[in-house]
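Students often ask why we bother encoding 3D structure as a string. The short answer is that it lets us treat folding as translation between two languages. Here is a chain of 149 residues written in the first language.
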Amino acid sequence: MRIDCSGLTADDVLSVVAERVDAKDDGTTTVDLENVPYAGPLITSAEPRRIAESVPLAVEREFGLKTRIVTAPAAPAPALPDVPGLAHKTVAQLASAAGALERPAVPLAVWRCLARAVLRTSRVNASSAPTPSVTGPAAVWNRPPCPPG
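And here it is in the second language, the structure alphabet:
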């Protein structure tokens, strides 16, 4: 039995196992937990650790099934793209600021706001005026709200 743990909590994973387990199972089924590093609703969620540590024990105790955490080979980090009209440093700042976002899927309006904040900072930096660093969430979120559109 394969379970994609992306976005799920440990409780969700156990619920899926409970729904899928066959009462006639003789204990030979293995529960494959996939995408455990992407579990939980937030990027910095503790759910991957909770799933890896507690779900296998609970599945074995409650259902008598073996559990295996399936890991995919690590993909190389993508190179920063060349964006026409933006300096490489600005693209790097946008990528860095994206780390301040906690949700794995972010609405386009939030990305627009983030990009405006970084681009404003880049323009001000280009004119040599002092500005806050764009390496942490405070630099992005301590700005006035973005105008609509």
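Translate back mentally: Strands lie at 2-4, 30-34, 66-70. Keep this in mind for the problem set.
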